[in-house]
Task: structure prediction
Amino acid sequence: MRLENKIALITGAARGIGEAIARLFVEEGAFVILSDINDEQGEAVASSIKKGCEYFHLDVSNQNDWQTAQEFILEKYGRLDILVNNAGITGFLETSGPHDPENLDFSSWQKVNAVNSDGVALGCKTAIKLMKPSNAASIVNLSSRSGIVGIPGAAAYAASKAAIRNHSKTVALYCAEQGYPIRCNSIHPGGILTPMWDAMLGEGEARDSAIQAISADIPLGVMGSANDVAYAALYLASDESKYVTGIELNIDGGILAGSAASPNRE
Ligand SMILES: NC(=O)c1ccc[n+]([C@@H]2O[C@H](COP(=O)([O-])OP(=O)(O)OC[C@H]3O[C@@H](n4cnc5c(N)ncnc54)[C@H](O)[C@@H]3O)[C@@H](O)[C@H]2O)c1
Result:
């Protein structure tokens, strides 16, 4: 029960990493508000968890939705202890693209940044207000390995994730400076097999060989699971990490540990 008596809000919780975090947090004793734009799937996940959670519609790119969530949480629970800003899009399915820096489609760039970068900024703003009455609160932001290195074919995604990486540190320092009981950290997943990859992997045999090819480039040799990230979020959300703020935690099978061009002895 590492999250006993904690009230948590998780964005993008209808599937993938957000769903895994919601399930783990409930198991660890938190009351979890799952949110998403996919209401049908979000409601289904919440009902399958049964106790210790509820579903609430929240489009993270929409200021009014955050305002409504803030009023709802304040009225019903009086405070928030944990926010996981998990919702994010690559833009490959959600926009027309292209996403390379030379040809990028500006409205696609804006859409990806609106969800990933603006969504996290609005989430942090809302959480800071709701977390002041908490004894010990934690904001966990889902950045990416793509927020640390450049991605030629996904400029908006990479830039938006870099914005999350930096904003997390600003929030961490601001809250410390103000004496608020709020920590803020970022998680940087890489190669986690979730529905987000569907658009990039194809189907059937093509999917299997794409997964094999990606795995071959990962030092640990396999793609990660949503739970690998959920356990990192659990640590950062719990009071076990009470001295940890402004850090970036890589969950990537070792991808960021080195470089493909590292020199070889022979
Ligand atoms: N899977 C990976 O390898 C990987 C790697 C690095 C970072 N991440 C990050 O982890 C987070 C979760 O990724 P995932 O793999 O579970 O993705 P996913 O696509 O499987 O799930 C994302 C969820 O976010 C929801 N969503 C999309 N737009 C939204 C919006 N405007 N408001 C609220 N919800 C919205 C979707 O409906 C979906 O339920 C994302 O921020 C992603 O960028 C994932």
Summary: The helical segments are 16-27, 39-49, 63-77, 106-131, 155-178, 198-201, 204-216, 226-237. The chain has a mean pLDDT of 97. The beta strands are 7-10, 31-36, 53-57, 82-85, 137-142, 182-189, 248-251. The domain at 7-194+225-253 is CATH 3.40.50.720 (Rossmann fold).
